[in-house]
Amino acid sequence: MDTPAGSAPVETLLENHRAFLRYLERRVGDRALAEDILQDAFAKVVARPEQAPSDESVIPWFYRTLRNAAIDQFRRRGAADRAYEAFARELHTHETPTADMEAEICACVSRLAATLKPEYAEALEAIEVAGTPVKTFAEQKGLSSSNAGVRVFRAREALKKRVTESCGACAEHGCLNCTCKRA
Description:
Blueprint: H1 7-15, H2 17-28, H3 31-47, H4 58-93, H5 99-113, H6 118-129, H7 134-141, H8 145-167
Helix pairs in contact: 2-3, 2-4, 3-4, 6-8, 7-8
């Protein structure tokens, strides 16, 4: 029986599946991860068999492919680990505002919210302050849920702009020393 072009390297690789899996498992230390890497590598070869050598050099070529895939996995994992560590440090060092500071910030933002269009101020008061679900707010005001969602989105954007105008650039960076102009 004739085999389609490109299937011989794939068959050779499939015959060596267990050896490839052992190779990866020793390198990554996790069987499930090794299986995932191997499956991805096989899928790439099956999708583009013309990239694989058609002679006996297919095995060393595939080992190099697997080695590179494992290295890429470690790089991705390292980047994710560094991001998690930075986030954990940020959470650990983040100061929670005192009750007095929170009250001052809330009062400042409330004064600024009162300067918005009445329907925006009303939407923010109901949804953000009172905790009314958007769907309930929409029903109470005779709006569609999507229209209410757009209204609250625009209200948030308008309030963000007012806070930035009033408090200056420090508002963009989360500054808690509220020295804004009284509205």
